[in-house]
Amino acid sequence: MIRNLDITTLRSFVTVADSGGVTRAAGFLHLTQSAVSMQLKRLEELLGLELLDRSGRGIALTAAGEQLLAYARRMVALNDEVIARLTDQGFEGEVVLGVPHDIVYPAVPRVLQQFNASFPRVKVQLLSSYSSRLKELYDRGECDLILTTEAGGGDHCETIAELPLRWVGAAGGSAWRQRPLRLALGRRCLFRPKVIAALDAAGIPWDLAVETENDRTIEATVSADLAVHAMLDGTEAKHLVQIEPGALPDLPVHKINLYGGADGKGQIVEELAALVRQNFKTLGSGHLRAVG
């Protein structure tokens, strides 16, 4: 008997795998948690396979689930391509989104992917710069939406996340033990005064190993275990790790603010702002890892 896979069910399966759980996936899909769970159960019954390992706290893919995931991604993508190519999309144009370098990962790639699936004919122009520069561009009307990292909020912005600064270093590294402590910091980084003030208050001598406007230079230096850096919780790259709490002074909480999300700029901008809010809410917590 011929069995057919349902694209809606496959989309839910892919979203669960990408988001790491049914609850988060339900939010992304605008469905109830029970509806997503039922879809996954029907998919397993159709294939006669267990696709998810539910024995732990979270949800992990089984070997069969990993194999299906590759096919499911292709089938969902092909479905979306056919719909986009053969139907008249009501939305076209361009949206300019400004994001500071250090919070692009990991939320913004998900935002762009999800937005493109809903509005394939709308181009998102991503600008990455410092918060102060992005605010200048926004004030001149050169950006539709911007995100900033700031110590406070304001009347013209919406705080979508509050995250503590964390010390980050190389996996298995020892740069955090050195004295003076070697730092890799951006010249215009808003975190810089807070980082230096915390070290001074703790009586820890420090030295600037790198002072640059290029985040790649900072990332390379820290990855080589030549310095440490400070980033908002959950925004560090996969090859960097958070330094064990207590090894260095605690750092303050900063806000991620959204400008332009409530300015009545139309449905396209509002939908992009909604995705930004949703994805940045999942940052932080559970990202602490010791470096030795």
Helix content: 25-40%
First CA to last CA: what distance? 57 Å
What structural category arises from helix and sheet content?
Answer: alpha/beta
C-alpha-based Rg, rounded? 22 Å
- pLDDT averaged residue by residue: 90
Low-confidence stretches: 286-292
Individual helix count: 9
Number of strands: 11
| Largest sheet geometry | 7 strands, mixed
Shape: globular
Order of helices and strands: HHHEEHEHEHEEEHEHEEEH
Oligomer: single chain
How large is the share of residues in beta strands?
15-25%
Which terms summarize this structure?
292 residues, alpha/beta, two-stranded antiparallel sheet, globular, disordered C terminus
Give the topology.
Elements: H1 7-19, H2 22-29, H3 33-47, E1 52-53, E2 60-61, H4 63-86, E3 93-100, H5 107-118, E4 122-129, H6 131-139, E5 145-150, E6 158-170, E7 181-186, H7 192-202, E8 206-212, H8 215-223, E9 229-232, E10 240-242, E11 253-259, H9 267-280
Parallel strand pairs: 3-4, 3-5, 7-8
Antiparallel strand pairs: 1-2, 5-11, 6-9, 6-10, 6-11
InterPro entries: LTTR, LysR_HTH_N, LysR_subst-bd, WH-like_DNA-bd_sf, WH_DNA-bd_sf
Pfam family, one: HTH_1
Domain HTH lysR-type: 5-62
